[in-house]
Design goal:
Helix 3 packs antiparallel against helix 4, helix 4 crosses helix 7 and helix 6 packs across helix 7. The chain is mostly helical and 144 residues long.
Length: 144
């Protein structure tokens, strides 16, 4: 994480983007570090949200255009996690995408959304809203 913090906003974008894809990174740590070092909270939350949503679109595209074998191989999503994500969609519908920020379940949800070819504007609104509120709450907690 130290590597990303040295790059400031660019590092935050990269950490946020990669955290939403296949790499087990914590963009929250980078965001917290920047906020504690007087980086602008509005810009920081915006950059973190943008990077994380963009990473979720990579997952969506992987699900949309990839075969199930490729999805599991590249995204490293287990059969069990993939099935659970599909069950969440069946139980809660497309609104489960609001929780795409949740560790462990979020990435599979965005991949399954692509597999199921969920409407892109709906995907964008729900994923962005959830991720934005997560970063906003983290920022508030750090700066309060």
């Amino acid at each position: 994480m130290e590597y990303y913090t040295q790059w400031g906003y660019v590092g935050l974008f990269l950490a946020s983007f990669l955290a939403a894809t296949i790499l087990p990174l914590s963009s929250e740590v980078v965001l917290s570090f920047l906020l504690l070092n007087d980086f602008n909270p509005v810009i920081s939350v915006g950059i973190a949200t943008f990077g994380n949503v963009l990473g979720s679109f990579v997952n969506y595209a992987l699900g949309y255009w990839g075969s199930l074998f490729l999805v599991r191989k590249v995204s490293r999503i287990s059969e069990d996690a993939f099935c659970k994500a599909k069950q969440r969609f069946k139980k809660y519908g497309v609104f489960s995408l609001f929780f795409a920020w949740v560790p462990v379940i979020g990435d599979p949800l965005t991949v399954v959304a692509g597999v199921l070819k969920i409407n892109i504007p709906t995907f964008f609104i729900l994923v962005t809203s959830g991720k934005f509120f997560r970063y906003l709450i983290i920022s508030y907690a750090i700066l309060a």
